[in-house]
Amino acid sequence: MSTSTARAPRQAHRPQLQLPRLRAVAPISRVPRLPFLLLTIAAIVAGVFGLVALNVSVNQQSFRISELQRETRLAETRWTALQADVDRLKAPARIARAAKEARLAPAGRPRVVKWPGARGRDVASPGAASSPAAPGAGLARGDDDSGWTAGDPFPLKRYLAEP
Amino acid sequence: MPQAKGSGRKRPPPRRPPQRRPPRRRRRRVNGRRRLLALLILSLLAFLAISGRLVVLQVFDAGSLDQAAARQRLMVVDLPATRGRIFDRSLNDLALSVPARAIWADPHLVKDKQRTAARLARALGIRKKTLAERLASRGRFVYLARRLPKMRGDVVQRMNLPGVFVQGDVARRYPAGPVAAQVLGFVDVEGHGQAGIEQQYDGLLRGQAGKIQLERDPQGRAIPQGRRNLEPAVPGTDLVLTLDQHLQYVTEQALARAVGQHRAKAGSVVVMVPRTGEILAMANMPTFDPNRIAASKPEARKNRAIADMFEPGSTNKTITAAAALQHGIVTPRTETIVPDNIPLCPEKTFRDSHSHAPELMTFADIVAKSSNVGTIMAARDLGRDRLYKAELDFGYGRRSGVDLPGESPGILRPAQSWYCTDLGTNAIGQGVAVTVLQMASVYATVANNGVLRAPTLLRGTVDARGRVAKADRRPGRRVLSVRTARSLSRILEGVVKEGGTGTMAALEDWRVAGKTGTARKPDPNRRGYLPGAYVGSFIGFAPAERPAVVVAVVIDQPTRGYYGGSVAAPVFKEVTSAALRRLGVVPTLPAKAVR
Predict the structure, then answer these.
(1) pTM as predicted
(2) ipTM for the assembly
């Protein structure tokens, strides 16, 4: 009894709560997260795949370059070996041996016929008054007017010198 | 409220003194602080240790560690420079480098050395014993074979022998074999020139080695997209020589036949263009194949044309005649009564090769018939100093400057130290020593209207970028007047005509001027001459009226015939004929040339 009497004044002194007025609001529409998630994952996956693809492509090119460089080296090696073979086959001793086997005779004395009215020269054109084995006879005249620098006698050399 | 003492109520059991709890809490607090402090100190120490180590690693040892990491990750591959090629004047390859293979072994990794040696012996064509000895080496690297053809290397590679490895190598090849062997020289295992042009121009031919730095994977394979630093090798410079491969071959064949036919000890031929000093051919017998250098003998590798000296004998009379003509002592038509001996000094009488009654001879006849007495008579009028100067002017006693190593200067004693007899001996080519090339230069000077051109073998170079450069030419030096040279040329034409000593050198289609020589060989062990040992020579040029080529032939110690006119003149004829055809020179004897 005494307890209830003691509480009553407290309730009496409790201030009136001003509760906000409740009103109805529209239900909050929840944005679906799954598409966003999927889109993000797809973007990340696409980016990663893109980067990987790019890297693979770059590496493929590197491998291709390496392969081509190796092929170039092999081709150069093969060219040099073939050049050595050609030189060996062109060796005068081998040609002389082959000519002998074929029963060819050395060229005889040179015959020079002067065409009437032609101006005389002391040096014949290559092959005109020399043996068949005289290509380049004009080169052997000795002075610097032989034209040995003409043309491009070393195309491969020039190619190899390029970086 | 406190209760009074002594009340009747039961005393509660004594409690623990309440004051004991606070001290326990304090200790715990103290211990916690200490632990924290210890932890802090430990952390600091650890931090300091780590920092110190980092400083050591990042500052003090950074360089060496960086290098160690680089060594682990990067590999450096040497890129050997390709040695330059050597061409003849028509750009035929005389020497070139081709890829080859080297076989090496780590003897520690070879399991069964005897079996490995046996298998390799079959594949490489090397004796098993030799290979076994190499495999018994204590080192970790031993070459088993080098400069092998690529195919053989591939065979060894396929064998997959433990401890045996195949690596790239370069082999020097001389496609024409022995052709111009002494001129070209050869290279050692490392590819360095050891003789001839290979040695002379080693610096140009060698090029500059490069290297490539590559990143490698744990298996040691290069990572294609990894880091790579390339220092490209610079290939060696190519040389274009003045030699003509075809003419060189023909010359060597002719010389070999003569040396064999006359059972001579050796022989040399030099073919030169008098107008430029370019050497078209330089042949020596015996010879060798530079592709098989190990099988060659040292005497075969010697370039006798520039290294060996000989007494020129009568071919030296050309110098005496030139000096006498130049100083107006004689003319080609000067007539003299020539006996068959002349007492030049009290103790020395010079004689002709054949005894004869005193003859009235022109100076041209004296040269054509190679009279010792007539030549010495002209030399006596010329005098010691002028004869010596003429020999000096023609290049005796000093190197010609040809671009080859090992050239001999010859021997020409100063005039001041000549004995009484030296005037006579020098006049007829005894007591003086020259090389074949020096003698060729003498006749080239006469052929070139009195201008001496230094002999040369280099026509030009082609560098790694394909740039062509002509070789420098030294200016010529006038030794004789044009008039003297032409007079002398006409006199020398008489040598190959009927009645001369060199008729076997005459050509059917071109006029020839030249001189025979037959000299005794000095005894290398004592004063005097070797009994029955001679050097036969013929040196001349053609066409005589406008010389295109000079040919010097020297046959050393022939045993079947020894006169220059019989052992050397035929070689001159064959070589000169081939050279003139090769050069495309139109025959100058019209009656015979046009049929």
Answers:
(1) 0.77
(2) 0.70
